[in-house]
Amino acid sequence: METSLTWSIAESLTKAIVEHRLMPGTKLPEQKLANHFGVSRTLVRQALFQASQNRLIKLEPTHGAFVATPSIEEARQVLAVRRMLEAGMVRNFAAQQTPSRLLELKAHVAAEKKVMEANDVGQCTELLGDFHVRMAELMGNEVLAQLLGELISRCALITLMYQSASAAEHS
Length: 171
Hints:
Radius of gyration: 17 Å
Shape: elongated
Oligomer: single chain
C-alpha cells in the first residue's frame, strides 16, 4: 500500500512538472505536500527521492527538494540521447509496421492536433512526448518505452526552461 502511494505521489509530481504546473526551481516543502496528498512526510520524502532518480527533482541536504533546473549542457546531452534512441526506434518501427500500428499512430497525431487547437499546453506536451512512447509500446519494447518516458519527462522540463514559444509551436 505504501509503495503504491509513494508511486502515485511521484507520478503526480512528475505530471505537474511535465504539464508545466510546477516550474523549474520551485521549492517542494515536505509538510505542504504531505497535507496536500493526505499522507505522512515519510511517504512524501520517498516520493521525492523516487522523482529525483529521474532528475526531475533535486534534493539538497538541509535545504529540501526543488524542481530541477537542468543546465544548457545537460539539456544538450538529454536531447542528443533522445535523438539517438528515437532515430533507431523509427527505423525499427518502419521495418515492423503494420496497418493497425499505423492507425494507432494516426489517431495519436489527430489527438495531438485537437489539443493544440484547444491551446491545452499541458495535454499537448504530454501527447507530443507520448507519441514516441506509444511507438515503442506498439513494437512491444517496454524497456524502450520506459526509458523514453523518463527522457521525455526531462525534456518537458528542459523545453520549459529553454524553448521559445515559436519553436514550441513547430515541435
